[in-house]
Design a protein that fits this description.
506 residues, alpha+beta, OB fold (Dihydrolipoamide Acetyltransferase, E2P), Chloramphenicol Acetyltransferase, 4-stranded antiparallel beta sheet
Length: 506
């Protein structure tokens, strides 16, 4: 008997979904609980599983928008499916039930609290399959918030029952999965028994729907690299392409398809390159960045003041001692430590630049927690160097390298990205000559560094060529006056043009 498959209810406010992709073709034989399609709503993407084994008959095609409750396919009982499924089910249940005993307890795993401002998370990738035996503290899934990606460990030994599928967005406290608590572990002879019972079908059954399918994080990285998922071998469960696979993937350079030589006729503008487009849903991180940047523009009286710095003294000092610095401390001597030290000295002299607004109060900080903007594959993150005013040059450089590396690997914690009092952003590494950086709330100011360009300047009545960098200080005019902002930037300029002052603190 054929069973009709309808679009399930996926949320109170969701009235329709889009068929993002069919993972099985019309007429294919499917197994019970096998994922057959990916459905996409305006909030999340989730998987549609087969309610029974049988032959798939597709009613709605890929790309169609269908209301909740609409029939999108039917599954008719198939001889092949019914013949193999009971046998496989019986063998799996008998072999799995021998070595371990269920206690009857069910451990519900819910979304943990991961930060004060985070209200929801997205299930990025399941590292285990539904029905797998898992051990205590074994990593089950990667969960993504608007600020960071973190791992979800198992809270008990037992059988995993997945409740929230990949790409599902859940609120804090939402149910992710359940673990049927067991005593003991599954027998190690399960895999060989399966091989001896179905030797002829092994090659075909090892390929699953997940084979060659990237996880959400992996798909974004591959898109940014311009690499097709078909060119990457997946190492995840069922052949799924994981985030690590995407990071390691290299852009192949096959020979470009040869285009036919243009005919010797007048050129036609319409015959140019392909005019293709693609659309992607914004990630949680990108949505949060967008909301906060718009809020800053609307809720602060932001102004930007500029100055220029002769970088020759810093560059000369760096060139003279960079080898000894690297040999002694094991980290390179960059410009960031000079700027951080100069900023900390200036912040002590102009405390309003290091302050923030809390309702109708101004909060002055007697410490300098300097945030550094880091560009990552997921978007812009701003980790914090704590108590930068008390750190040495080598400690600052080491902390910059550590935070930047964790940011690019998506391993930053919530604590490492909250609580800064002042920010630095370096657009110069990308070639920016001048910009007006946007404040990182609740901070009141941010310093923008830019590229260093040799320019003709007048010094002591003579025209000389010097490596010049433009600096930009964006600040909240509600608590920082023009005199303070300009004086702060002039002080930073003075310290950088005479780096001996950074050592002496004068």
């Amino acid at each position: 008997m054929a069973q009709q498959v309808k679009v399930p209810t996926v949320g109170e406010s969701i009235t329709e979904v889009t068929i993002a992709n069919w993972l099985k073709k019309d007429g294919d034989t499917v197994k019970m609980d096998e994922v057959i399609a990916e459905l996409e709503s305006d909030k999340a993407t989730f998987e549609l599983t087969a309610p029974q084994a049988g032959v798939l008959k597709i009613a709605k095609q890929k790309g169609e928008v269908v209301p909740i409750g609409t029939i999108i396919c039917e599954i008719a009982n198939g001889a092949g499916a019914t013949a193999t499924t009971p046998a496989e089910t019986k063998s799996s249940t008998t072999t799995a039930s021998k070595p371990m005993q269920t206690t009857g307890a069910i451990k519900e795993m819910k979304v943990p609290a991961v930060g004060e401002s985070i209200t929801e998370v997205t299930i990025s990738t399941w590292l285990k399959k539904d029905g797998d035996f898992v051990k205590l503290d074994e990593v089950l899934a990667e969960v993504e918030s608007d600020k960071a990606t973190f791992e979800l460990p198992a809270e008990a030994n037992g059988i995993l029952r997945i409740v929230a599928k990949e790409k599902t967005t859940l609120p804090i406290g939402g149910l992710i999965c359940k673990i049927e608590v067991t005593e003991g572990a599954p027998a190690t002879t399960t895999a060989p028994a399966a091989k001896t019972t179905t030797p002829a079908s092994t090659p075909s059954t090892t390929v699953s729907y997940a084979s060659g399918t990237p996880s959400p994080a992996a798909a974004k990285i591959l898109d940014e690299k311009g690499i097709a998922s078909s060119q990457v071998a997946g190492s995840g469960v069922g052949g799924r392409i994981t985030k690590e696979d995407a990071v390691k993937a290299q852009v192949s350079t096959p020979a470009k398809e040869s285009k036919p030589a243009p005919a010797l006729t007048p050129p036609v503008i319409a015959s140019g390159g392909a005019r293709t487009e693609r659309r992607e849903k914004m990630t949680s991180l990108r949505k949060t960045i967008a909301k906060r940047l718009v809020a800053v523009k609307n809720e602060t009286a932001m102004l930007t003041t500029f100055n220029e710095v002769d970088m020759k003294p810093v560059m000369d000092l760096r060139s003279k001692y960079k080898d000894q610095f690297k040999e002694k401390y094991g980290v390179g001597l960059g410009f960031m430590s000079f700027f951080t030290k100069a900023i900390c000295i200036a912040l002590k002299e102009f405390p309003a630049v290091n302050a923030s607004i809390d309702k109708d109060e101004i909060v002055y900080h007697d410490y300098c927690d300097v945030s550094i903007a880091v560009s990552t594959p997921r978007g812009l993150v701003v980790p914090v160097i704590r108590n930068a005013e008390s750190l040495s040059f080598s400690q600052i450089e080491s902390e910059v390298v550590r935070l930047a590396t964790k940011g690019r690997d998506g391993k930053l914690s919530i604590e490492e990205m909250t609580g800064g009092t002042f920010s630095i952003t370096n657009g110069g590494v990308f070639g920016s000559m001048l910009s007006t950086p946007i404040i990182n709330p609740p901070q009141a100011a941010i310093l923008g560094m830019h590229n260093i360009v040799e320019r003709a300047v007048v010094q002591k009545g003579e025209v000389v060529v010097r490596p010049i960098m433009y600096l930009a200080l964006s600040y909240d005019h509600r608590i920082i006056d023009g005199r303070e902002s300009v004086s702060f930037l002039v002080r930073v300029k003075e310290l950088l043009e005479d780096p001996g002052r950074l050592i002496l603190g004068v």
